[in-house]
Amino acid sequence: MALGRTLAVALVGLSGHVVEVEAHLAPSLPAFSLVGLPDAALGEARDRVRAAVASSGLAWPNRRITVNLTPATLPKSGSGFDLAIAVATLAGAGLLDASAVRGVVHLGELGLDGRLRPVRGVLPAVAAAVAAGHPHVVVPAANAREAELVPGARVTAAHSLAEVARRCGADIEAPDVAPVGAVHLDGSMASGVIADLADVVGQEDARAALEVAAAGAHHLLMVGPAGCGKTMLAARLAGLLPDLTEPEAVEVTAVHSVAGTFDADAGLMRRPPFEDPHHTATPASIVGGGSGVARPGAASRAHRGVLFLDEAPEFQNAVLQTLRQPLEHGEVVIHRAAGAARYPARFVLVLAANPCPCGRHVGKGLDCTCTPDRRRRYLTKLSGPLLDRVDLQVELHAVSRGALARSAHAAGPGESTATVAARVRDARHAQADRLAGTPWRTNAEVPGRWLRDRLGPDRALSADLDRALDRGTLSLRGVDRVLRVAWTLADLAGRAAPGRPDVGQALALRTRGQGAP
Question: How far apart are CA 15 and CA 12, in angstroms?
């Protein structure tokens, strides 16, 4: 009887758990069994490992092999356990130095030719291993840059199983193999080009709302006819947001690592992400899903950035309703039979909608071909509970010829992204100073009770809110949203610390678009 041990990491959401991989070799009829709650992809590791060992010039032990993944009650998924299974099996057979691999974490997928292929989630996996006291990790060469982002990790990059085996005492040659490059498993990253706000003509109200949304991380709804600039404005919001802090960059990068959309050559993601899924997207693609342990969706990939839903009424009602939990709590919790996955999802939601299906119901609506019933059913797809979580609601109008002429004869284009982003950055610093010592970072995250306590006994400040609450124009959640926007307006004006929030202006921004829906 022989026993080989090494370590791997199982990811459940962004939480990593160190797994001990044990390979028991018994003198019996040759067989290979894998236990410890593996999923289908992990269960197929038996065939990949056997072929990779043979291709690497190593003798496959013809004994009864049982590989156990401990703890056995934790669900394991993916092909990232291949290398650990192969190393533990070879150590149990005496082909590798068992003491050299016992405390080392091995991550990577094996090809049938023995080459190591990159896997998802290396960043959070290595971080979990280092936190658990196992800093020495072996990863595929394509994942090395990503693993090295974790402070304290001792990373060994390898191109093949033969290279790993030779380092662990196997008496074989490690042939030169063509390296396997990094692969974006779920699509490529967006380009780093930032669209400039100066390209937008007119739409002063919408530009102001965009600046407020960026300064306080407020959600935004824009309703207007086709071609009025809703998509242009939304595409420029991410450029107004400040760079991610170090903890935010690590968290955002970890999400994209698990999703398979992270470019390790660029290092940590320092800029807020921008996600704009098509209106045919399913609920699972937006909030996350999949068989076994759920993968992150667009809402989590937009964490600390922007999630833009263009033509929002065209999305499935189920998609819109699934956003209510992340809008309220800043995270997505997905329950499956194999376990629950928790992903962060604190993003700025931007909804864009036409006033009707044909998009021409503006002014008197003389050019509109939609019936009143179609118009009513179209915008009621944006439910009241969803809109009650949207801080800013703005109605846009088509750009007039006069606005175009004024733009052409102006001394220069409108304010650029850099100019507005500087004001947003100053407002974020004011929020950071005011919220120091609290778990919140932006005005949009602050709970209503804290906001109302800040008003104190001065009821004149909230007289407009009291009247709106009495008339039913605003819910209590809506009142809290107005207060958050009011603080953001004060931050942008540079008077939040000594002064008070501008409730009247915030109420106007909060309710300006409510007549449209």
Answer: 5
At residue 199, the pLDDT reads 84
Give the list of residues 6+ apart from residue 393 with CB closer than 8 angstroms, or none.
Answer: 220, 221, 223, 387, 510, 511, 512, 513, 514, 516, 517
Q: Cα 24 from chain centroid?
A: 40
Q: Of 300, 255, 308, whose CA–CA distance to 278 is shortest?
A: 308
Q: Count the neighbouring beta carbons within 10 Å of the beta carbon of residue 145.
A: 18
Identify any residues that bridge with 34 across adjacent strands, giving them in sequence order: 67
Nearest to 312 by CA among 379, 360, 358: 379
Q: What single-letter amino acid sits at 505?
A: Q
Question: How many C-beta atoms surround the C-beta of residue 15 within 10 A?
Answer: 11
Mean pLDDT, the chain, integer? 86
- Residue the block writes with tokens 């603080």: 487
**pTM (2 d.p.):** 0.85
Evaluate if residue 191 carries a pLDDT over 60: no
Asked whether residue 185 carries a pLDDT value surpassing 60, the answer given is no
List the one residue out of 5, 18, 21, 20 whose CA is nearest residue 131. 18
Q: What is the model's pLDDT at position 517? A: 37
Q: Which residues contact 312 (CB under 8 A, 6 or more apart)?
A: 221, 279, 320, 351, 352, 353, 381, 382
272 within 8 A of 263, measured Cβ to Cβ: no
Angstrom distance (rounded) from CA 72 to CA 83: 19
Cα separation, 480 vs 9, whole angstroms:
42
Q: Which two tokens stand for residue 118?
A: 């990159």
CA R_g for the chain? 28
Q: Rounded mean pLDDT of 474-494?
A: 86
Token pair for 438:
């609290």
pLDDT band, residue 193 (cuts 50/70/90) = low
pLDDT, tens digit (0-9, with 9 covering 90-100), for 44-59: 999 999 999 999 999 9
- The verdict on whether omega for the bond into residue 277 sits within 30 degrees of 0, i.e. cis, is no
Mean pLDDT of 177-182: 73
Q: CB–CB of 235/197 below 8 Å?
A: no
H or E element that contains 20: strand 15-26
